[in-house]
């Protein structure tokens, strides 16, 4: 939860910085003050940047108070689950075009479910993996007419 609270001001700091840079690249006005089209977007992005920085510092102050919750979240099985999910996602991206949507989705979802649920629930893992893969393939390929690899 805290990561989400910190990611919002960081996102808006980046967004307002890009918006500020883009506002200086606007074309000059041909009549009147040539810099007039730059004032409003630049001012708006500067205000948004200032408020985002203030919000980030407020959230960082709260981080010290909630540090014990972050330590609890990062202990146990959670980091391994995140790492394994990222690893499977990267493998899924590499094999998607080579073996196709259906087979790569079965491998990805099956591997993830077996890691989360364990081998004891093998029947549920296999049923969910195959049912979801075939239903999503059917929905996209047949019903929506989207060609999948």
Automatic annotation (TrEMBL):
Keywords: Membrane, Transmembrane, Transmembrane helix. The chain crosses the membrane at residues 7-26, 38-57, 78-95, 101-119, 126-148. Residues 8-149 form the DUF1468 domain. It comes from the Bacteria. Pfam families: TctB. This is Putative tricarboxylic transport membrane protein. It comes from Terribacillus halophilus. The lineage of its organism: Bacteria, Bacillati, Bacillota, Bacilli, Bacillales.
